[in-house]
Every structure is written in structure tokens, then in C-alpha cells.
């Protein structure tokens, strides 16, 4: 695996994602017929500069076939994108998504999680800036029962602020089939056990891999005093494009998350 190629890929992907976001914000069609591109009449100057610089960067790579040259051209584009008064801070945090039961028995999940968390601790020893987040208390309590020394090492990382226990829920539950009481109990038990592990309740509901979301969730989260909700599944569809990745979700009663 080429580290240079990996960096170029992600740097370029972020720029393309930003361009697509501005296109959507300005209501400019991305898909064109017969090679026709809609004229950019009223768009932010930063978009014009970025598109021009991206074209130049691609031309450089076409001529040189050099990833190093392409990386340098991409770096110069980022230098053009100056921040406003509302600076954004982006954090890269590790996570290992683990279904308690999916294509294997539950006992296999607990074997895999011991192996996974041991690898995370080893990475933390190798990379001092590496941080990690996990969810679902049953995973931690299994380690505490079967591998107490491993649990002690995890607790030490939690105290250092490098290992975050989050999620609010006992498990990453489906939200369409369970009734409201079932979801509430999942939060009550989850928050109680998370507080016992990290010393405080979670401020984020963590549901990255759920297919569908009940409209009552903002109300339940608000009543549980949980201000944040995180997921990724809504952005996976190749047919129905969800228009936002950061937004305020309001329920039928007006409560929001």
C-alpha cells in the first residue's frame, strides 16, 4: 500500500466532496447530457478558483504521471481555501464497528472484540496521537469478565482521554421494530452502564449502521437529555441522495437532536 497514493486519494476526495456540496447549495446540476456543463454565473469565487486549480492539478498528473507532483498541486489548492470567522475543527478518530450478532454467533463477536481492542491498544502505543471511540457496553463488560488486564488497560486510556466510550444505548438497536418503551429502556440501561465505565453519561447516540430511523427519536433523545445523534447509513444510498450530513433533526413535537 502506497502512503503517498493514500494521501493523494483522500485529499482529492475531500476537495471533490466540497465542490459537490457547493454545487448542491447553489442548485447547480452535476449531471449533464452530451457533455454540456451549466454556466457558473453566480457562484462563490472560491469555487471558481478551486475548479480551475483542480483542472490544473489533473493536467499536471496527465503530463507527469507523478503522484508527488499531483500532491503538491493539491496542497496549493488547500492553501487557497482560507477560513472565515467560523473556523471548523475536524477530528479523525478511530472506530471498530462490531455487530453483536450478524453473520456469526454471538460468541464469535466476543472473540473478535478481544482481538480488535488488543490491536487498538497496540496502535496507541505506536502512535501517541491516535484516539479511539467505542460503543455498546456488553462488549466492554465481556472483556472485563474474560480479560480483566485488558479492561484495565482500556480504563487507563479512558482516563487519559484517548479512548472514548460513547453511544448512549445498551446496543446499537434497530429503531423501527422496537416500541418506544424498548428504545427508552435501551437508553436507560446503556447510560447507566456507560456512566459506570467512563464516569459520565454519553452525550451522543451512536447508530452508524441502522436501516431506517423512527420519527420519534428526536423526542426520545431530548427527554433523555442527549443533544447529539450520529449515523452514516443515510448517506449510503446510490438512488436517493440525502441532502445533508450535518443538520438539526426535529421530531413531530418540535424536539430536536
Could you explain how this protein is built, in words?
The protein has 257 residues and is mainly alpha-helical. The protein is 49% helix and 5% strand. It contains eight helices and five strands; from the N terminus they run αααβαβααβαβαβ. The chain has helices spanning 3-25, 45-64, 67-80, 106-126, 137-146, 148-160, 180-198, 217-223, and strands spanning 94-95, 132-134, 163-165, 204-206, 228-230. A three-stranded parallel β-sheet has the order 1-2-3. Strands 4-5 form a two-stranded parallel ribbon. Helix 1 (3-25) packs parallel to helix 3 (67-80) and helix 5 packs across helix 6 (148-160). The radius of gyration is 22 Å and the shape is globular. The mean pLDDT is 87.
In short:
This protein is mainly alpha-helical. The longest helix has 23 residues.
Arithmetic mean pLDDT: 87
- The gyration radius over C-alpha positions equals 22 Å
Distance between the termini: 40 Å
Order of helices and strands: HHHEHEHHEHEHE
Sheet with the most strands, sense and barrel status? 3 strands, parallel
What is the overall silhouette?
globular
Amino acid at each position: 500500500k502506497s502512503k503517498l497514493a493514500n494521501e493523494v486519494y483522500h485529499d482529492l476526495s475531500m476537495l471533490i466532496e466540497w465542490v459537490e456540496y457547493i454545487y448542491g447549495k447553489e442548485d447547480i446540476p452535476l449531471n449533464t447530457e452530451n457533455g454540456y456543463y451549466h454556466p457558473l454565473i453566480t457562484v462563490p469565487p472560491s469555487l471558481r478558483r478551486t475548479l480551475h486549480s483542480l483542472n490544473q492539478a489533473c493536467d499536471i498528473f496527465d503530463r507527469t504521471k507523478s503522484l508527488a507532483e499531483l500532491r503538491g498541486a493539491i496542497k496549493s489548492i488547500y492553501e487557497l481555501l482560507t477560513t472565515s470567522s467560523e473556523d471548523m475543527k475536524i477530528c479523525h478518530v478511530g472506530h471498530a464497528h462490531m455487530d453483536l450478532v450478524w453473520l456469526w454467533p454471538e460468541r464469535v463477536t466476543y472473540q473478535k472484540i478481544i482481538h480488535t481492542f488488543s490491536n487498538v491498544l497496540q496502535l496507541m502505543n505506536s502512535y501517541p496521537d491516535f484516539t479511539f471511540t467505542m460503543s455498546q457496553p456488553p462488549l466492554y463488560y465481556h472483556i472485563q469478565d474474560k480479560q480483566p488486564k485488558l479492561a484495565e488497560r482500556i480504563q487507563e486510556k479512558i482516563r487519559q482521554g484517548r479512548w472514548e466510550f460513547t453511544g448512549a444505548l445498551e446496543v446499537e438497536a434497530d429503531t423501527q421494530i422496537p416500541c418506544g418503551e424498548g428504545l427508552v429502556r435501551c437508553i436507560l440501561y446503556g447510560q447507566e452502564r456507560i456512566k459506570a465505565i467512563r464516569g459520565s453519561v454519553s452525550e451522543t447516540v451512536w447508530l452508524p449502521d441502522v436501516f431506517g430511523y423512527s420519527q420519534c427519536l428526536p423526542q426520545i433523545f431530548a427527554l433523555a437529555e442527549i443533544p447529539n445523534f450520529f449515523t452514516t447509513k443515510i448517506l449510503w444510498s446510490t438512488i436517493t441522495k440525502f441532502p445533508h450530513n450535518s443538520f438539526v433533526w426535529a421530531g413531530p413535537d418540535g424536539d430536536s437532536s
